[in-house]
Design brief:
The structure holds 2 protein chains of 2 kinds.
Chain A lengths: L4 H5 L2 H5 L5 H13 L1 H18 L10 H14 L5 H11 L2 H20 L44 E3 L5 H5 L4 E3 L2 H11 L7 E5 L2 E5 L4 E5 L2 H14 L6 H8 L2 E5 L8
Antiparallel strand pairs in A: 1-2, 3-4, 4-5, 5-6
Chain B lengths: L18 H8 L3 H23 L2 H18 L9 H22 L11 H4 L3 H8 L4 H20 L2 H12 L4 H8 L3 H23 L2
Classes of the chains: A alpha+beta, B mainly alpha.
Chain lengths: 265, 207
């Protein structure tokens, strides 16, 4: 079937760009030689192409690269901020943010208090009140007022309450010692040691902490050792006069703790 | 028993004169990037101008193009030529800008009535350098203004292909890569774009 002019004209653009298959190209060229209207159409196409090809193109401004480098550096300085960061930054900066937060917290606290389960806190029984600082002669005061829970395994029978206990001087001073708990025993033993006269003594579970200017010591005794110690004291009626002696006799555990007042080596 | 060997397929390496500069840049040499910019700034800026019809817009978008290139060059795998990739980035930026400007009625306004003359006048200066008969010069200038106007009247896709082909001189194959189209589509689109421009010019000049 022979092509009509319209079909040939569809190929003009590709013909100008030399994009036609050889047989199609020669067929078109043969037609163009015979058809003036298609020839004219080809010339119009060619003119349109040349019009675009010959359009002057502006050169980039001279400072194009300088401006670009400046923008690259600006972007490197200011890293892009994520969407959420932008939102939160704006929110926090908003004047009403603080007020709204306070109101939300207040409402939250109200409902938390209203609907949270009720807890019945039982008072914790301490062996001794921590505020009770054990220092030197303070031993004579307040012992009886302190309610002391029995440690496990310590029978009341084994508790020692001798006014006659101690060294002859102590006996002469009619000092009374109540040794119902490991803590009481340890503190009494510390108070017997003259080298800790100036030290601060704090009760802890199973013993006490001694704070001197030089060091911090933790002195504790296990429950079985405590019972043995009570027996021994009851038998001899004597308290060791130094902590090192007491350590030997009653197998106390004495550890040096890091001193918070001294810098680390 | 037949053993099937998996043949390693070699990646087609496209010889690209810009590869050396890109490698140097990726190793941290900023000067290599500057050289790439200098090599391509006129082509990118010129294409932006022809697509957008404004020197100010062209400069802004061309800057954006190179900023994108600066950030994304590490992702450029060299599967196509650098110039092809650069044209793609440029065309995409310009299309986005055209949409933005189109929404603001930019192309309906009078600002593009005579784009070459009304802008910074760089083009008219270039033309003056060519020593020609003043009358012929004037006529040629008028024709150029008319052609520019008619290019701006073209459908966006037609404007892109006609500029890539007839102004930038890209092959059909390269245009297909830039626009991610089949070569056949490029061929027919170029034909329709030229036919449209021809008709527009005929109408204007046939008066």
């Amino acid at each position: 079937m022979k092509k009509d002019c319209q079909e040939f004209q569809q190929e003009l653009s590709a013909y100008l760009d030399d994009q036609l298959a050889p047989e199609v190209k020669s067929e078109l060229e043969a037609h163009l030689r015979l058809c003036p209207s298609c020839q004219q159409e080809l010339e119009l196409f060619r003119a349109a192409v040349q019009a675009v090809q010959t359009l002057p193109t502006p050169q980039a401004p001279e400072d194009f690269l300088i401006k670009l480098r400046r923008r690259i550096e600006e972007q490197a300085e200011y890293q892009p901020v994520s969407f959420w960061n932008r939102i939160t930054t704006k929110l926090v900066a908003h004047p009403s943010f603080l007020a709204i937060t306070m109101v939300m917290l207040f409402i939250g606290a109200f409902f938390l208090g209203r609907f949270s389960p009720q807890f019945n806190f039982k008072p914790v029984s301490h062996e001794l009140e921590p505020a009770f600082a054990w220092k030197g002669t303070a031993v004579n005061y307040g012992w009886e007022q302190v309610s002391v829970p029995q440690p496990e395994g310590a029978s009341p029978v084994m508790a020692v309450s001798y006014s006659a206990l101690g060294s002859p001087e102590q006996k002469a001073r009619r000092e009374r010692f109540i040794l119902q708990t490991p803590t009481q025993l340890i503190i009494t033993l510390i108070n017997q040691d003259q080298s800790f006269k100036e030290a601060e003594v704090y009760p802890i579970s199973q013993g006490a902490v001694i704070i001197t200017k030089e060091k911090v010591l933790r002195v504790t005794i296990s429950n079985p050792d405590f019972l043995k110690a009570l027996k021994q004291i009851a038998q001899t009626g004597l308290l060791p006069t130094s902590l090192s002696e007491a350590k030997e006799k009653f197998s106390l555990k004495i550890e040096e703790l890091p001193n918070p007042l001294k810098p680390l080596p | 028993m037949a053993v099937r060997r998996k043949g390693k397929r070699k990646k087609a390496v496209i010889s690209d004169p810009d590869q050396k500069l890109i490698k140097r840049f990726l190793k941290g040499e900023e000067g290599a990037f500057n050289q790439l910019v200098l090599n391509y700034q006129n082509r990118v800026y010129g294409l932006c101008y022809q697509l957008l019809g404004s020197l100010d817009e062209a400069e802004e978008v061309a800057q954006e193009v190179f900023l994108t290139v600066y950030r994304s060059l590490k992702n450029f795998r060299g599967e196509s030529r650098f110039s092809t990739w650069l044209y793609r980035v440029t065309v995409n930026h310009c299309k986005n800008r055209m949409k933005y400007l189109g929404r603001r009625g930019y192309y309906q306004s009078d600002s593009l009535e005579e784009p070459v003359e009304t802008e910074k006048g760089e083009i008219s200066r270039q033309l003056e350098d060519e020593a020609q008969d003043p009358l012929e010069h004037l006529e040629q200038k008028e024709i150029q203004i008319l052609v520019r106007k008619k290019i701006m009247d073209l459908d966006e896709d037609h404007r892109v292909v006609i500029l890539l082909r007839d102004m930038e001189g890209l092959s059909y194959q390269e245009i297909a890569r830039v626009l991610d189209l089949k070569e056949g589509t490029v061929k027919s689109r170029i034909h329709r774009a030229r036919a449209e421009l021809k008709t527009l010019l005929e109408k204007e000049l046939g008066k």
